[in-house]
Amino acid sequence: MAMAVEARSLTKRFGEFTAVDGIDLTVERGESFAMLGPNGAGKSSTMRMISTVSPATSGQLSVLGLDPATDGQAIRSRMGVVAQDDNLDDALTVRENIMIYGRYFGLSWAAARSKADELLQFAQLEDRSGAQVNSLSGGMKRRLAIARALVNDPDLVLLDEPTTGLDPQARHLLWERLYQLKERGVTLVLTTHYMDEAEQLSDRLVVMDQARIVAEGSPSSLIAEHVSKEVLEIRYPAEANVDLADLGLRTEELADRTLIYTDRGEDTLAVLVNSGRTPSSSLVRRASLEDVFLALTGRRLVE
Amino acid sequence: MTAPVAVTGPRVLLHFWEHQFIRFRKTFRSTITAGLVGPLMYLLGIGIGLGTQVDARAAELGTDSYVDYVGPGLMAASAMQLAASESLWQTGGLLRWRGVYVSITSTPLAITQLFVGHVAWIGFRTFVSAVMYLIVLLAFGIVGSPLALLAPVVAALTGMAFAAPISAWTGWSMSKGPGEQSFPMILRLGIIPLFLFSGAFYPIEQLPIVLEWIARVVPVWHGVELIRALILGEGVGLLAGLGHVAVLLSYTAAGIAVGQRTFVRVLGS
Ligand SMILES: Nc1ncnc2c1ncn2[C@@H]1O[C@H](COP(=O)(O)OP(=O)(O)OP(=O)(O)O)[C@@H](O)[C@H]1O
Ligand SMILES: [Mg+2]
Questions:
Q1: Is residue B264 within 8 Å of residue B111, measured between CB atoms?
Q2: CB A228 within 8 A of CB A262
Q3: What whole-number distance in Å separates Cα of residue A259 and Cα of residue A242?
Q4: What are phi and psi of A248, to 5 degrees?
Q5: Whole-model pTM?
Q6: Tens-place pLDDT, residues A120-175
Q7: Torsion sign across C-alpha atoms A145, A147, A152, A155
Q8: How far, in Å, CA of B248 to CA of B218, rounded?
Q9: Is some CB atom of chain B closer than 8 A to the CB atom of A100?
């Protein structure tokens, strides 16, 4: 069977500006794939090309084995799209949002009704079925947007920043629902600013920065490849001028703290303490994709 | 699980109209009220009020009284107004502020089809309002022919002749252009003058020659003439009638050709 998504030298320009600069990516069927990157990296522009709405400026793209330029209708009928904005219809109720959407995909009214019930349950919105969209919280709107995107039992679901702006509880509920989809064999392509989201939900990811892909792999392989196992975060008083060069480890100076990449954080901390360089505060943690991003670009993911 | 049937071709347009109809139904009561009050005001205020001053010379207009002249003409002019406001703020909202059309781009409906459906839907909206107009005209005893039943169809054509080019503008202005800031200007410098110079209130031959020709070139006068002829039953030559319809359809077709591009630009960039 054809790949879910296959892109070669995919490029998107807006006038002179290049939003996506010749990226290559492949998403297999059943895979859960994430694009991690800061604001303006080109994630949404890539998603919009995959969703067949935005034509590529150059390069090749195939979605579910079809060409978005010519088979948009066929691709869309087998795909679910959750855009960065919810774009719900505020003139309709929660349930109508799903049903009316389902009609565009050829569901009979009876099928649209039973599908809406099933999806409202999935999104834990049964008790809001008759409510106006504007009365929903941000997390509920997001879940409704996702439920609506599933109305055609899609083979491929695109999620552009599914949890941005949600509180931790709402995020975890969404993650759990997305995990269920993945278990059912639905191919997921999502974008995110959050490394924990990418680590939780994706089998494989690309790190995007300034219109390009700067790294690719599974969350754990990217960490293994680009950073140490652990990170020692230390703080010194502002006036202190501490030299760490003798440690022989990679360090990163941030505005408010210093990161030391090490395989054994506690040992490194002991070395500092024993040599009279006890920091005013310290923390040992596992390395994350945030560190990968910092190592690759010299910048932080979420400013 | 119910596997969806692949929706292809123009059938998916039916679901677009269904969607719009369900949205429309929610405001049906206020639409009906506004649809009846509007013409009632015009007929009382202009037709009867102003009419008492000018009825003595109504024969020059070819009608018994001024209200007979102005009533049917206003059906066409109102169709233009309604179509314009639907094509400006309403359409801007569907494209941007509310994102309703944005979400439709993820369904099988293509953007080019969406634009056709959009224009036809505004045509239907003007048809509904024109039917209510006709009811008020009937109540005033202004209808003189069963051909009047065709008048709302012509009103819909008039509405589409404005909806297509103005929605095309809205699509363009929401992507690169000045956006909704341009809307009041279009209304004040475009639609209101056209309303006054449409031939609804007096024959356009009264206008200075330049304005008269502008009135002839713009679609609304064609709607006014045709609707008045149908409602009063005064008859219009077959050729002239077809000519009017052809003008209305040409504007619609040209507007659709341009609007499909501007909608693709605003929704699909
Ligand atoms: N329609 C457009 N016209 C012009 N420039 C655009 C357009 N859409 C996006 N861009 C630009 O392309 C770049 C990439 O935007 P994109 O929305 O793809 O980024 P993103 O990775 O999704 O960012 P975010 O995390 O903020 O959503 C940005 O600099 C943006 O300003
Ligand atoms: Mg984005």
A1: yes
A2: yes
A3: 13
A4: 70, 25
A5: 0.90
A6: 999 999 999 999 999 999 999 999 999 999 999 999 999 999 998 888 888 898 89
A7: positive
A8: 9
A9: yes
